Amino acid sequence: MATTGDEKARLRALLLDRSVKRGAFTLASGRQSSFYIDARRTTMSGEGLALVGALGVAAIARRKWQPQTIGGLTLGADPVAYAIAVAAHARGAPLNAFTVRKTAKQHGTGRRIEGCFETGDAVVIVEDVITTGASALEAIAAVQVEGARVLGVLAVVDREEGGATAIAAAGHALEVLVTARELGLDVSGR
Fold this sequence. Notes:
Blueprint: H1 5-19, E1 20-26, E2 32-37, H2 40-43, H3 46-63, E3 69-73, H4 77-90, E4 96-100, E5 113-115, E6 122-130, H5 134-145, E7 149-158, H6 163-169, E8 174-179
Parallel strand pairs: 3-4, 3-6, 6-7, 7-8
Antiparallel strand pairs: 1-2, 4-5
């Protein structure tokens, strides 16, 4: 599945227009940063969903991953997983999506993983933005407890702050659609 450089360029432009904010921010990791990337402003837009879906399917194909399901920790991972599942379906490739709750439900089925996840599935974990890798690693741990085989992690944006190293140290491959440097962000000064 090939995508055009135009799709990646358009995703970068959309992220810069909708998602990148400059100023003084405290990240979820507690780190201070001179920029914030609210990727949901892109991944929850119609155009962003189409671009992430196409680029995500192409990235999975390049890696030769053959997942049955795709998902990650709610909320950032949700639109990414759904976009890729829809794009895969449009190309005739069956791929379902799931969501990992931050905590298990206290009612109903009491599940932590919702959607089309089955024990034993081959999965790709997705993220909107990778910073430290903690959210991806939490999602990996949750699905592995339920018997999944993790093929790798796919992120829309890598802030280039150690998340790739943490994911690799845990034994997982990481595929990234766009890096902070590709967005023209100064990752040295944070």
